[in-house]
């Protein structure tokens, strides 16, 4: 079974999650691919797809890429500079899932806190101190706290989630069982 981990990262946080997942997946045939290097051939049995959240969903490169995936077992993960247990985080993850769920089998998903890129923080600071993405004291504090994310614990959780799901999918196939979408 071949596993492809394909991601898009702005600040390097999604790349960290993708690398942790890649390292944990036990498949003998696996690849790690950054979309900034172009779109890979979709020849894996399992595709684990990661993006950074932009405007409540996948960033532009991943948003354009996801609908091209058909007939695969996929997992979706994302990072965002907000709280991973918030409704905003869930909606941002669901936006990515919506782009693949009709044509693929969903193995699972994961959303992770991630430090914002310096360029995005600079843009928010230029906007002043009012508005949802402004440089308000509350947002400045959140940005400071999230600079340490993803943590090792978050990376381990993402890695375990998809290591286990890829293994489970493989075992279903080996035993002639149909795997139903989890999400």
TrEMBL record:
<feature type="domain" description="Flavodoxin-like">
    <location>
        <begin position="5"/>
        <end position="160"/>
    </location>
</feature>
<dbReference type="InterPro" id="IPR001226">
    <property type="entry name" value="Flavodoxin_CS"/>
</dbReference>
<dbReference type="GO" id="GO:0010181">
    <property type="term" value="F:FMN binding"/>
</dbReference>
<dbReference type="GO" id="GO:0016651">
    <property type="term" value="F:oxidoreductase activity, acting on NAD(P)H"/>
</dbReference>
<dbReference type="Pfam" id="PF12641">
    <property type="entry name" value="Flavodoxin_3"/>
</dbReference>
<dbReference type="InterPro" id="IPR008254">
    <property type="entry name" value="Flavodoxin/NO_synth"/>
</dbReference>
<dbReference type="InterPro" id="IPR029039">
    <property type="entry name" value="Flavoprotein-like_sf"/>
</dbReference>
<protein>
    <submittedName>
        <fullName>Flavodoxin</fullName>
    </submittedName>
</protein>
<dbReference type="GO" id="GO:0009055">
    <property type="term" value="F:electron transfer activity"/>
</dbReference>
């Amino acid at each position: 079974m071949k596993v492809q981990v394909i991601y898009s990262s702005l600040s390097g946080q999604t790349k960290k999650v993708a690398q942790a997942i890649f390292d944990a997946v036990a498949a003998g045939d696996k690849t790690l691919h950054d979309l900034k290097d172009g779109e890979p051939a979709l020849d894996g049995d399992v595709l684990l797809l990661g993006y950074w959240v932009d405007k409540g969903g996948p960033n532009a490169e991943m948003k354009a890429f996801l609908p091209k995936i058909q007939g695969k077992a996929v997992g979706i993960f994302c990072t965002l500079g907000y709280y991973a247990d918030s409704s905003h985080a869930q909606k941002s993850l669901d936006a990515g899932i919506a782009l693949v769920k009709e044509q693929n089998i969903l193995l699972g998903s994961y959303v992770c806190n991630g430090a914002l890129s310096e360029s995005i923080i600079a843009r928010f600071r230029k906007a002043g101190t009012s508005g949802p993405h402004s440089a308000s004291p509350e947002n400045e504090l959140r940005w400071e706290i999230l600079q340490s994310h993803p943590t090792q614990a978050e990376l381990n959780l993402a890695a375990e989630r998809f290591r286990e799901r890829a293994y489970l999918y493989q075992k279903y196939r080996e035993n002639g069982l149909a795997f139903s979408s989890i999400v």
